[in-house]
Design goal:
By secondary structure, the chain is α+β, with helices and mostly antiparallel strands. It has a single domain, classed as CNF1/YfiH-like putative cysteine hydrolases (4-Layer Sandwich), CATH 3.60.140.10. It contains seven helices and 14 strands. The strands form three sheets. It has a six-stranded mixed β-sheet with strand order 1-2-3-14-7-4. Strands 5-6-9-8-10-13 form a six-stranded mixed β-sheet. 45% of the residues are buried. Bound molecules: zinc ion.
């Protein structure tokens, strides 16, 4: 069930499940409402795609203000399985983080930024230990069960019980468009069952299954069900456009 917002800021989608939880703020932002031009029109959050530094800074500032956050933390994402765990505000400078795809924090008011254009941003919240995480889950990350790795990291670092965790999967490549012609080479055989018709895969169901296998309750999972490649007005899609921007997904503990 979509829950769209554009109240005084850039248009973004909210998970109805996370929106019910008063301890967190979050937004899966679209490409609308920013200042970037051309192929990057308009709310691009990535400096690695050819867009200008000033435009990206303005876009990030608008998103931060929309959610009422003091700071954002992002990283150079590399489709790996490494994590950054931020437990003090000093660690929280944007782009100061190393090459990681799992962001975790206990710092209230610090927004965790994942940049994507077809890959999934998956947001986690542990209300018992007051921890949030945001994960960049592309097909390579799914191949190494990055979502399960995130749950196990939260368990070992914070004592998180998987049954307490909430997880929301944002707009990303849907089964309508997730074609992998070389899947025999690219995916472990265990993932081949997610083929919905020849060479097309349901990466949404894969994430749900990986999360429930890690111990999350189905009632604590939320899937946006919005395909980035189909949604040209709302979303950047690398698959569709190649030269394009990245939309931002942000979650934070409320300050
Ligand atoms: Zn699609």
């Amino acid at each position: 069930m979509a829950d769209w917002l554009a109240t005084g800021g850039p248009r973004h989608y909210r998970s109805p499940m996370l929106a019910e939880l008063p301890e967190v703020v979050h937004g899966f932002f679209t490409r609308q409402g920013g200042v970037s031009l051309g192929a990057y029109h308009s709310l691009n959050v990535s400096l690695a795609v050819g867009d200008g530094q000033e435009a990206v800074a303005e876009n990030l500032g608008r998103m931060r203000q929309t959610l009422g956050l003091g700071a954002l933390a992002g990283a150079a994402q590399v489709h790996g399985g490494r994590a950054a765990v931020i437990t003090s505000p000093d660690q929280a400078r944007l782009a100061a983080l190393p090459e990681v795809d799992i962001l975790v924090t206990t710092v209230p008011g610090l927004g965790l930024l994942i940049k994507q254009a077809d890959c999934q941003a998956v947001m986690f919240f542990d209300p018992v230990n007051r921890v949030v995480a945001n994960v960049h889950a592309g097909w390579r990350g799914q191949g190494i069960d990055i979502l399960g790795e995130t749950v196990r990291l939260l368990q070992s670092r914070f004592g998180t019980r998987p049954a307490d965790l909430y997880a929301a999967i944002g707009p990303s490549l849907g089964p309508c468009c997730a074609e992998f012609r070389n899947f025999r080479r690219e995916f472990p055989p265990a993932l081949w069952t997610y083929q919905v018709r020849p060479t097309y895969f349901d990466l949404w169901r894969l994430s749900r299954d990986q999360l429930t296998a890690a111990g999350l309750l189905p009632s604590h999972l939320d899937l946006a069900g919005l395909c980035t490649r189909c949604g040209a007005d709302d979303f950047y899609s690398y698959r569709r456009d190649k030269v394009t921007g990245r939309q931002g997904a942000i979650i934070a503990l409320k300050a």
